[in-house]
Amino acid sequence: MTEHSDEYILSLLQSDRFEEGFRLLVRQYQERLYWLVRKMVVHHEDANDVLQNIFIKVHRNIQRFEEKSKLYTWLYRIATNETLTFLSKQKKRQITSLENEEINLANSLRADDYFDGDKVQMKLQVAIKQLPPRQQLVFTMRYFEESSYDELSTILETSVGSLKASYHHAAKKIEAHLRKIAEE
Amino acid sequence: MKEKEAIQKELEQLAPLLARQKEKSSPFKLPDDYFDTLENQILDRVTMEPKKDTPTKIRSLSFWLTSAAAILLLAVGFSFLFQSQNKSEALLADISTEEIDRYISDNLYEFDEDLLFEENTTSADLNSTDFSEEEVNLYLEENIEDLEDLDLDYLL
Question: Is residue A178 part of a domain?
Fold first, then answer.
């Protein structure tokens, strides 16, 4: 797919070629945003729902985008906010214990046609899901998306020091979880 | 490329088992034509949405509705304190705690999103590694379940 600059996309969105601009925006960012969301919510169906909601919100609010930040940063902020909202609502709906939550996720991954991981990869997903949502987000964006701390700082509006602390703490917790599995 | 190497090096020092997991192929799959069909699915949903020509007015309407609801809740709270218990119970009887919780949580999210769209500026001094009191509080709040094994070195 041909890459278009954000400036070009924005110029279309501000003209009478709005729909063409919006289609380009979706095409340009759908994969990047999908993978970020998917690694947070794990299941494809959930990722699809969240991603569609993200683009609906973008469509609804793009006229209010004032270009104080980059388009990429603005989209990622909406995506991370929407994903965290989904995870918080999901957590509220779950009234089961932590142990049951682990079993539920493991079972749903086994039944998921779009998850093809081995035992350790499955346990890794379970361990990531045990993190508090915001720490999970920092971990996902650094570990899977390979974002720099400066990028994370701009998107999440948090200091680099605080992000490092979150990431290091999350990685150590997951490592301890993996070590426990290896010893079993 | 340098950033990727830095991330991998950091991970190897921090969590070697986790670093090794990165070498495996991704376990996540998706339908083959997913990205070919997504654009039209979104456009279909967007065209079904009611048109919002005056977002500012709608936002301020939602703001006033939220404020009115908050005032109403406060009024109910005060009447609960100062009026007879029977009367207050009668006022609250029709609203379950669950409904109130759901209302507040739903409207707070909307309000947060409005602020998010409004504030697309970045916070100042992004390179600072000093923690403000607010950030420390936020961090503690996020990790409150894990305070026992919290490595204080990272907070200092």
Answer: no
